[in-house]
Amino acid sequence: MASPRGVAEVVESLKDFLKEGQAERVIGLAGYAIDEIQESMEQVDDSDGELYDVFERLQELHLEACREAKPDPVDLAERLFEREMESSFDAFYGAVERYAEVLGEAGLEAYRRLAEAEWAKVTASSSGTNGRNRYGAHSRLSSIMEALAGDDLEARVAVKSRDLSSADRFLQIAVLYRGSG
pTM, whole model, 2 decimals? Predict the structure, then answer.
């Protein structure tokens, strides 16, 4: 892996591609670079945060390229969902909200279908369980489901109710109800 400075130069090159009307190309290249950085982050000291800054800039560039290229919304939803679920460093975290404009109605519906299909596989956790599924994919999926719930209080409570393994989870539900009056 190149130095963070070298990777930053790649980001600048990708910005040039975007300015030259190569948005589709930038989507693929930025996605590839994000994957490579995620792999590298497990093996490098990034205590100064320089590599993570480049990582975030690549994610912004990916979004910008999607806005410009306007890829098929259903295909984009499938790719984003897969990447959000499999990311080890929260790449594409919150994609359903960040990419909502690009996804449009069709893409958001596809994202919802994918999330609900995975959500149906999640078993409810309760106090006394080992809570292994509370982290990783379960946590990302919970975040996605909460984002899809939007302002629907009961839908948000239903998501949070799937994991009642700690007192804090009950408190989060109470805070939601209190906040809604």
Answer: 0.83
